[in-house]
Design a protein that fits this description.
40% helix; 9 helices; TIM Barrel; alpha/beta
């Protein structure tokens, strides 16, 4: 049995705590990049924790990029990610979704990733938080070969498979079915939305033969939680309805 959830990115307001009271989903992913989230332990315990008690909750980091580019800004983002993992511990949340940077050549940051990512993984492990790496919509970490390298090197990581990002990456030569064949064994979590080319539009999932075929294959994976990530609440409801039509229960 799968769990259906919604991202707070679907909220029409950044201060979404009252909005959550009327959300008809079993799970919620708090998108820290699109919110007014307090970085105070007292406020987290007093205001956030009671609001999310009824949900199976996960977090989505705001810290990006972690590697490449300006070293001072990268270090700042890494410290934010450590803080977000600590927030997950305070909230008794055990999953956090993060990104690797949208960079054309993985080789340019490979050494940095191999040196530093183990520190992040160990910090999360000590707080009983599972790190979920989300596939990008473009560049290095939209490509199966680079994601496979990361999962082979760091088996503690699991994949947050973003369907819209896979669809968008087809513009750059990624085949959605080949992507799924190679990576579904690493996937335990999914962002579900459609993506109208050429951009990553986070639309409601559209019922069409290629989508139905893709999701029929996705059902064979070990994904336990499906987060609707359309940009509106109505779009998220539409997407969940279509997944149920495709046989997700």
């Amino acid at each position: 049995m799968v769990i259906f959830g919604i991202s707070t990115s679907a909220s029409p307001i950044r201060f979404y705590w009252n909005w959550l009271k009327n959300v008809d989903f079993e799970a919620v992913e708090i998108n820290l990049a699109k919110s007014e989230f307090p970085f105070s332990e007292n406020s987290i315990k007093r205001f956030v924790k009671p609001t999310i008690t009824k949900f199976n909750t996960s977090l989505h980091t705001r810290s990006d990029p972690l590697f490449g580019g300006n070293k001072i800004l990268n270090e700042s983002n890494r410290r934010v990610l450590f803080a977000e993992i600590e927030i997950a511990k305070i909230l008794n949340v055990n999953q956090i979704v993060f990104h690797l940077p949208k960079i054309k050549e993985f080789s340019s940051i490979k050494k940095e990733v191999l040196n530093y990512l183990p520190k992040i993984i160990e910090f999360a492990k000590n707080r009983n938080v599972q790190l979920l790496l989300e596939n990008s919509s473009r560049a290095s970490f939209s490509k199966p070969e680079n994601l496979l390298f990361i999962f082979d090197k760091f088996p503690e990581l699991k994949l947050a498979l973003d369907t819209g990002h896979v669809f968008r990456a087809e513009k750059d030569g990624v085949d959605r079915f080949d992507f799924l064949k190679q990576l579904k064994k690493y996937a335990v979590y999914s962002h579900v939305h459609d993506s109208k080319l050429p951009g990553d539009k986070h639309q409601a999932l559209v019922d069409k033969p290629i989508n139905k075929e893709f999701f029929n294959e996705l059902k064979k994976s070990n994904i336990q939680k499906y987060i609707m990530e359309a940009h509106t609440y109505e779009g998220c409801l539409q997407t969940r309805t279509l997944l149920k039509t495709y046989g997700f229960h």
